[in-house]
Design a protein that fits this description.
Chain lengths: 259, 155
């Protein structure tokens, strides 16, 4: 029986390779198109949207000098981030040729704080950093996601896609199976979305928490009863980059309301 | 079976090392081996007898079989069904019990692209299992046989 399993593993690898070469058919659709009308209404109303609480916390962290820091983000970037370039925000994650690595928006914010305001560095997905990310992304609300896909990024996207098409955990599913093959179908009471990143950080109805895309990827792997990649792992960065590139041209909705 | 043996010889010759290395550790002592015969598994896992009533509960329990996540089942008072897999009402009229068993145990022997998890898949074939799931199967052999006994009643 093990041999028979091996045969099928080979077949499986072969077929998956064949599928991997065909591009995702159909247009990108925001998770907004898949949530229930009540959740859409909740997202659209700034006062009803629970994610706005995180955005406001982020706004406070942005405008005010933090403990142990010399100055606030707002000193360079304007009060409420008035001087932030929203088109630039929509480009994240970016590839830094100088550092030779993927720089997520969280990482960019954390380094900027550390280098220019003398704040202590915050680890990836620290609650304050997720709040700041939510605030900064919310500045670019409505801006189309515009992740670079050419040059050195092309090779990184290929690695991201490989990870996206790999099965994980006891439940043994790959991201693409739910989010490319079955969007629109029901998993119990929930509609499966395309797993787009344009609404993140998003407020999750399931957990009641503001959640970064990095955290959501880890939660998805845990749900598959898999060992998630570390928050700062190369794998998670590659997945975030690939997922955001799939969201190109979708408008930023942070903070989206999602299941 | 003959076709399987020929395929086996052809494919084993070029078996990539990565596939061989996919296994994690050794097979747990309580894992019962099973054999595919004519697109089914004839022998019940570990020689166990299933209980249809228990199987029905396992099938609808979100923390155990959770079949309802993807399939429609003729179980009353269920709020929502998944629509990923085919509805399972009448499944026993369409498939023999050995065929049902193979689909529950590890359906990728029939369809390598299937999204359906193998509920008694060889644990060594699982990629990055969570710490508490290492060396485990999705369901126990007894639970799988219970689910099969239940599905066999859906004529």
């Amino acid at each position: 029986m093990i041999c028979i399993n091996r045969i099928n593993l080979l077949l499986c690898a072969f077929l998956q390779a064949a599928v991997a070469t065909t591009a995702l058919a159909g247009e990108a659709k925001s998770g907004y198109d898949y949530i229930k009308p009540a959740s859409r209404a909740m997202q659209d109303d700034e006062f009803e949207n629970p994610g706005m609480i995180a955005v406001e916390r982020g706004q406070g962290l942005f405008n005010n000098v933090q403990d142990g820091a010399d100055r606030a983000c707002a000193e360079c970037h304007g009060k409420d981030g008035a001087k932030l370039n929203t088109k630039n925000i929509a480009r994240y994650p970016v590839y830094s040729e100088k550092a030779g690595e993927i720089v997520t928006l969280q990482k960019r914010i954390s380094r900027c704080r550390e280098g220019n305001s003398g704040s202590k560095p915050l680890p990836t997905d620290h609650p304050q950093l997720v709040d700041l990310e939510a605030f900064v992304r919310n500045r670019a609300l409505g801006e189309p996601v515009n992740v670079r896909t050419d040059g050195q990024v092309a090779e990184l996207l290929q690695r991201g896609e490989e990870l996206y098409r790999t099965r994980y955990g006891l439940i043994d599913m790959a991201c693409y199976q739910c989010h490319d093959v079955y969007p629109g179908q029901m998993i119990r009471g929930q509609k499966i979305s395309q797993g787009q990143g344009n609404g993140f950080p998003a407020y999750r109805l399931d957990s009641g928490e503001i959640t970064s895309l990095n955290q959501r990827i880890r939660q998805c792997l845990s749900l598959m009863r898999a060992e998630p990649f570390d928050a700062d792992s190369e794998e998670n960065k590659l997945l975030e980059l690939y997922i955001m590139s799939r969201s190109n041209d979708l408008r930023i909705e942070t903070p989206a309301v999602r299941y | 079976m003959k076709l399987h043996r020929i395929l086996l010889l052809v494919l084993l010759a070029g078996l990539p090392l990565s596939v061989m290395a996919g296994g994690q550790g050794r097979l747990p002592d309580d894992y019962c081996r099973w054999e595919v015969v004519d697109y089914g598994i004839v022998e019940p896992l570990c020689g166990l007898a299933g209980d249809a009533q228990r199987g029905s509960k396992i099938a609808s329990d979100g923390s155990r079989g959770n079949c309802l996540a993807c399939h429609q089942l003729p179980i009353p008072d269920v709020e929502a069904y998944g629509t990923i897999g085919p509805p399972l009402a009448g499944i026993a009229s369409r498939l023999s019990v050995p065929m049902i068993r193979l689909r529950v145990v590890d359906t990728r022997n029939i369809n390598p692209m299937s999204i359906m998890p193998g509920f008694y898949r060889d644990p060594r074939l699982i990629n990055r299992p969570g710490k508490k799931y290492r060396g485990r199967t999705f369901l126990t052999a007894q639970q799988v046989e219970d689910v099969i006994a239940y599905l066999a009643t859906l004529k």
